[in-house]
Fold J domain-containing protein.
Amino acid sequence: ADSSANVSDLKQKYQKLILMYHPDKQSTDVPAGTVEKCIQKFIEIDQAWKILGNEETKKEYDLQRHEDDLRNMGPPYYYICKENIRLSGRDHHKFIEN
């Protein structure tokens, strides 16, 4: 879910999806396994709504996603120029040798 989406917008999407995947709305003449997939999707949608349908739990979810995104970015890349490095007098020779 988009972190900028409000609960009202999410509720409309939830209602549309929950009706689409509701087990009672599925046709009986569908290929084998299709009904089971719809039931699983119905359960997933319902579980997501339990988190995203509440302002507090949605904030926690959004914060966790943001933290995960930051963690997965990897270490920041720093570009260091030797002109920007300041060394004390006794460490200066180490920089020149390397």
